Every structure is written in C-alpha cells, then in structure tokens.
C-alpha cells in the first residue's frame, strides 16, 4: 500500500505537491469515492481517477540508454525521426528523464516513475552530469576560467562548471574538454562553448551522477539495478549546499 499522492506522482501525471492539492480540492476518486484526506493509502487493485480520468498503476521500471546521435529525447516525433524509446524493449509507458540534444550522444535515463523523474530533474538537488566536448580552437586557461565562473546566456547566467582541458591538437586546431554541470537548460553545454567562441564539433554525456555507459555501444541499454536506484534516490533526497 502507498499514499495516494505518491501513486499519482509515480504515474507521471503531475508532481506529488500538485497531486496533494488535487486531493484536498476533491478532484481525486478511489473506487468511485471522492478522497480529500492526504493520508489515504491505496493498493495495486484500487481504481483511481483524477478529474474523471483513470490512472493506471504500472510496476516501476528504470533504464539506462546509451543514446546515439541523431535521436530525439522524446517518446514520439512528428517528423518520424528515431526517439529514445525506440531502443528499449518494454510494454511499459516509459519516458526520458530530462533530455539530450539531437546531435549529442551518451547516457540518458528512462522510466515510467514520474515522481522519481521529477526528483532527479529538480534543480535544487544539483545532480552532476559530465560531458566530453570536442571543440574548434585551442581553449586557453582564461576561457576555462570563464566557464568555471559561469557564462552569461540569453536565459541568464549559468552556474559555475567544473572544467578540465583533456587535450589540445594545435595541428588540427581542436581541443577536448571535460565539463561537469548540474543544470539542464536547453543545449546548455553547446551554448556555453559558443559563448567563449569554441563551437562544439562533437559532444557526449559521459556520466549521469555516478552512472556511466562504459562498455556499451550507442543504442544499447540496460535496466538499473536496485542499488543504483537507491543511490539516485539518496542523491535526490539530500539537498546539496
């Protein structure tokens, strides 16, 4: 048995906080009866409706995918392009946690657990994502310091990034950087690097928190194990300073 608001959040319909508001305001029914008590617990066989719409209770699943380039971080695409859910063999209604750009490869998580996804994506928990970027030009120490301090973009200044120069090829005029950020703005790493005049040639998300896609090929996936799920939940529970 689980609390009603938690079950609604897990279904990916809305956040737990909004689910609580809906319950208190009489918008949720269990087995045909309107529920307004937040402590109400429900089981797998209970019939839940929110605003008259049935909510399906699926067993939660959690996957790690090595997303290839030229794949959309969505469950469908109006232009018929490949999406991340195409690579995972499951009958569950899964969705990606956050996104990776179309031209960016690397690790992405997918689940049908809406509450889990919301917790991992919440900015206050500052979950690190590590990127490896090959860029045009030789990146100087001064440019790296700019990235570390934060870059002013059109949607505001970015949080400070952890940045390392991994290599520089003067003959080809390229550099390879490791960047660790915890924000999830649209095309953020690419825009940060464009802002310092080093546009991205190739970009991969190497790590999500402690998870990586080592020994995997683009398009391969695996389920997360119980220990990994517990560790991610721990990261999304303890607020970092």
Automatic annotation (TrEMBL):
**Which Gene Ontology cellular component annotation is one that this UniProt entry carries?**
cytosol
GO terms in the biological process aspect are: enzyme-directed rRNA pseudouridine synthesis
On whether Transport is a keyword of this UniProt record, the answer is: no
Q: Where is the RNA-binding S4 domain?
A: 2-65
Instruction: Tell me which EC number(s) this protein carries.
Output: 5.4.99.-
Looking up Pfam families in the UniProt record yields: PseudoU_synth_2, S4
Task: Answer whether the UniProt record assigns the keyword Nuclease to this protein.
Answer: no
Q: Which UniProt keywords apply?
A: Isomerase, RNA-binding
What protein family does this chain belong to?
A: Belongs to the pseudouridine synthase RsuA family.
Task: Give GO terms: molecular function aspect only.
Answer: RNA binding; rRNA pseudouridine synthase activity
SUPFAM superfamilies the UniProt entry points to: Alpha-L RNA-binding motif, Pseudouridine synthase
The cross-references to InterPro entries, in alphabetical order and at most eight, read: PsdUridine_s_RsuA/RluB/E/F_cat, PsdUridine_synth_cat_dom_sf, PsdUridine_synth_RsuA/RluA, PsdUridine_synth_RsuA/RluB/E/F, PsdUridine_synth_RsuA/RluB_CS, RsuA_PseudoU_synthase, S4_RNA-bd, S4_RNA-bd_sf
Where does the source fall among the domains of life? Bacteria
Listed name of the protein: Pseudouridine synthase
Give, as one word, the top-level EC class: isomerase
């Amino acid at each position: 048995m689980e609390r009603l608001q938690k079950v609604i959040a897990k279904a990916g319909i809305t956040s737990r906080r909004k689910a609580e508001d809906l319950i208190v305001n009489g918008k949720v029914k269990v087995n045909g009866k309107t529920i307004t008590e937040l402590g109400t617990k429900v089981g797998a066989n209970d019939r839940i409706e929110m605003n008259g719409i049935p909510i399906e209770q699926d067993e939660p699943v959690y996957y790690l995918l090595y997303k290839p380039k030229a794949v959309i971080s969505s469950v469908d695409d109006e232009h018929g392009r490949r999406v991340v859910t195409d690579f995972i063999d499951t009958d569950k209604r899964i969705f990606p946690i956050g996104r990776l750009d179309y031209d960016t490869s690397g690790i992405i998580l997918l689940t049908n657990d809406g509450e889990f996804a919301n917790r991992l994506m919440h900015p206050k928990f500052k979950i690190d994502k590590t990127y490896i970027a090959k860029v045009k030009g030789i990146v100087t120490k001064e440019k790296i310091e700019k990235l570390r301090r934060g870059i002013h973009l059109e949607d505001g200044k970015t949080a400070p990034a952890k940045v390392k120069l991994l290599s520089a090829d003067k003959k080809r005029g390229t550099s390879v950087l490791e960047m660790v950020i915890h924000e999830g703005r649209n095309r953020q790493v690419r825009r940060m690097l464009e802002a310092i005049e080093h546009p991205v040639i190739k970009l991969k998300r190497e790590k999500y928190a402690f998870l990586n896609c080592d020994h995997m090929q683009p398009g391969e996936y695996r389920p997360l194990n119980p220990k990994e799920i517990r560790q991610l939940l721990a990261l999304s529970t303890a607020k970092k300073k």
